[in-house]
Amino acid sequence: MTSRTGQLEVRVASFDDFETYQSGLRGWTPKIRKLDTGPFSANLVQAEAGPVRLAYSRIRSALELEGTAQPGFHSFGLPMPASTPALWCGKTTSTRTVSVYDLSGAFEAFVRPGFETAVLSVRPEALAALGEDLGVGAPAELLEGFDVATCSEERMLAVRRSLRQIVALLTHEPGRAGHSSLLGALSEDLPAQLLGSLAERRPAPRPVAPHLRGRALRRALAYVREHPREPLRVNDLCRATGASERTLRRAFVENVGVPPKAYLLARRLNGFRRELRHPRRGDSRVNEAASSWGFWHMGQLAADYRRWFGEYPSETLARSAR
User: Fold this and answer.
1) Residue 95, exposed/middle/buried by CB under 10 A (0-12, 13-18, 19+)?
2) pLDDT tens, 289-312?
3) Which among 128, 122, 125 is positioned nearest to 141, based on CA atoms?
């Protein structure tokens, strides 16, 4: 549902397909991989008021997201109070943290079922004017060196309380979308609250895991990216990282949300699915795409694919040919 009243545009939608959800993110172009089996479900509320955009989402699947920041905006990720933790650019999030998106930088995130967040995006010139009005300095200086900032619990509680009220009005009372108080809360009050919280930020949070597990996880993820189509095994990751299988399993479960074996399979299944949905010229057979992603047992592939995506590979290919 999309509605526009005066200066405010609102979009509210629910999704049962992660690729449709990905395409529904306005201004963002992340690559999303589904890491767990079973159905996908997500709610998305997006609003735009002048130089400010808000995107609220609740996700009920384990996902990996890679992408770049929304162009032309300073963006800030705010996990909601009931949210499951996420791994964002190598650091864990909490209700006291703000994920700061660099204007042109890349980001990577792992989210688990129950992840609930809001992303506030503000044009640089509007944020600069707000910083001057509040007397907190230039935003570029204020945000320098931060990817995850930890703020005071009291201030972040107020920010999230405002977010809850705004999202509830946008979702359940669309007739008030043009109300001046709502417009002011979204375009002025909420950015001011957030900027004030960041001005009193705390040192960066502790690493997502003890030193050895965190280092093993980073090395394992880098190794997987270097060998995207290979049918890697957990033993391969152990050799590449120098970590034990137990250490890797604990690091993945704590921070990615799935064990390493499931993650390795999910990465290739997602790549295989993208190739079926967007076949290269001359490639139109399931077997050809499967072999290029290291799948040889077609019966097992079909069973795994259906558990992940709710359909068989041939059905995905048939839909892409329409």
Assistant:
1) middle
2) 999 999 999 999 999 999 999 999
3) 128
Q: How far is C-alpha 68 from the chain's CA centre?
A: 11
End-to-end CA distance of the chain: 26
Give per-residue pLDDT as tens, 255-265.
999 999 999 99
Distance, CA of 143 to CA of 69 (rounded, Å): 15
CA distance 311 to 316: 7
HSE-CB of 299 using CA atoms within 13 angstroms: 0
DSSP 55-78: EEEEE-S-EEEEEEPPTTSEEEEE
Domains in the chain, CATH or no CATH each: 2-199 (2.60.120.10), 211-320 (1.10.10.60)
CA distance 178 to 184: 10
CB atoms within 10 A of CB 37: 18
For residue 54, what are the β-bridge partners? 47, 120
CA distance 297 to 9: 49
| Rounded-to-integer distance, Cα 15 and Cα 12, Å | 10
Q: Is the pTM of this model over 0.90?
A: no
Exposed (0-12), middle (13-18) or buried (19+): which is 242, by Cβ within 10 Å? exposed
Question: CA distances (Å), 90 to each of 105, 214, 232, in order?
Answer: 14, 8, 22
